[in-house]
Amino acid sequence: MDVLYFAWVRERIGVPRERVETGAQTVAQLVEELRAREPRYEAAFADLTALRVALDQDLADFDASLSGVREVAFFPPMTGG
Amino acid sequence: MDVLYFAWVRERIGVPRERVETGAQTVAQLVEELRAREPRYEAAFADLTALRVALDQDLADFDASLSGVREVAFFPPMTGG
Amino acid sequence: MRVVVQKEPFDLGAEANAFAAADTGMGAIVTFTGVVRDLAQGDLDVMEIEHYPGMTEKALTRIATEAQERWSLGDVLVIHRYGRLAPGDRIMMVATAAPHRKDAFEAAEYLMDYLKSRAPFWKKEITGTGAGWVAAKDEDEDALTRW
Amino acid sequence: MRVVVQKEPFDLGAEANAFAAADTGMGAIVTFTGVVRDLAQGDLDVMEIEHYPGMTEKALTRIATEAQERWSLGDVLVIHRYGRLAPGDRIMMVATAAPHRKDAFEAAEYLMDYLKSRAPFWKKEITGTGAGWVAAKDEDEDALTRW
């Protein structure tokens, strides 16, 4: 699936998006897989309360299922307006 | 003093303003004097709850004193905006 | 603060742009524009607005001053027309500038609520079948209780 | 409904006039405009706004649709810029048209509250001494509880 990063999450991970092959069933499992990869992921995902996630461009929870999902995005709380 | 009328009060009385010589101490006394004059005043002042009064261009109550007042205006509740 | 009472039409866009440009330190700008609606079921020909010259400017200035005392605001603009208007014509506008959106919104609503019931304007609707003064609405008077 | 996400500046006045002209049956038109303030004590050079293309339009359209379902509204307009902005630049605007002023005001405030915390925009302030992401405010999240 495609994993996208925005704002400081993008800056910490160093890429705006990447293709990830995963067997993770939930967002939380995907986060655990990513954190185990490299320190930059560990740094980005250190505090989940400071993060938001969208599945196929809809806001979701970290315990949401990834079944059928094609695009996952991680970002800090939004600051539009 | 100058007495001004607006909206349907003006239409019922038939003039937009007039000079009134009066010894009335309060707005209520002035209203009584005017009502006693002619039926058109009686018609305009029949229901005081449907009227508002301004003294020298500030909203006031019917029991307000006329002492020092130069301009009295009677009109229905306002409908601006 | 700018308070304008005029017979002539005003240009909402030009006023909004000028207002926003004059107050660059503000993060939030709110405008409200009132438009003549055809309330008389498609029959309204003319909306005639009478006002009390002198008191009108005084009342609007007081309302705008009170808003500026009550909220953290930048500039405030009030424009209100009088005379003969047609359905679709813009009757009036207010604009507020503030550091924060909440202040700009609340102050604009306050201006509108007070302007509706405390500024000396009266509307008369002239339709194909006659003419009548618009009655004040209880809900407009009630709106003042929230401030 | 019109939802626009663009890099280019927009003309508040032209947008307000076009919006008002398109919806003549409405008595009330409210606009809100957000302006880049120099929050970093006179030191802000650039405000950089990042967004999530695709999701942004989807989120804004949903928020506007919810407003139209919730209030008696005419048209709704949302414009939001991204990219590099300078202090004084206009970031975004919303406009609402309604038969009554209460609906137009409330819907505009609802749009702003949701847009602030639920549309995928992120602001970065670039000052003379560095750069930092603007933190979301608790009060913006709390603002949603009133709806």
Give a topology summary.
The complex is a heterotetramer, with 2 copies of chain A (81 residues) and 2 copies of chain C (147 residues).
Chain A: E1 2-5, H1 7-13, E2 17-19, H2 27-37, H3 39-44, E3 52-55, E4 58-60, E5 71-75
Parallel strand pairs in A: 1-5
Antiparallel strand pairs in A: 1-2, 3-4, 3-5
Chain C: E1 2-6, H1 12-22, E2 28-35, E3 44-51, H2 55-70, E4 76-81, E5 83-85, E6 90-98, H3 101-118, E7 121-127, E8 130-133, H4 138-142
Parallel strand pairs in C: 1-4
Antiparallel strand pairs in C: 2-6, 3-5, 3-7, 4-6, 7-8
Give an overview in words.
The complex is a heterotetramer, with two copies of chain A (about 80 residues) and two copies of chain C (about 150 residues). Chain A is of the alpha+beta class and about 80 residues long. Chain A has one domain: Ubiquitin-like (UB roll) (Roll), CATH 3.10.20.30. Chain A has helices at about 5-15, 25-35, 40-45, and strands spanning about 1-5, 15-20, 50-55, 60, 70-75. In chain A, strands 2-1-5-3-4 form a five-stranded mixed sheet. Chain C has a four-stranded mixed sheet with strand order 1-4-6-2, sandwiched between helices. A four-stranded antiparallel sheet of chain C has the order 5-3-7-8, with no helix packed on it. The longest helix of chain C is centred in the C-terminal third of the chain and has 18 residues, at about 100-120. By secondary structure, chain C is of the alpha+beta class. Chain C is globular and about 50 Å long. Chains in contact: A-D, B-C, C-D. Chains C and D meet through α1, β2 and α3 of C and α1, β2 and α3 of D. β2 (about 30-35) of chain C pairs antiparallel with β2 of chain D, so a sheet runs across the interface. Chains A, B: InterPro entries: Beta-grasp_dom_sf (IPR012675), MOCS2A (IPR044672), Mopterin_synth/thiamin_S_b (IPR016155), ThiS/MoaD-like (IPR003749). Chains A, B: Keywords: Nucleotide-binding. Chains A, B: Belongs to the MoaD family.
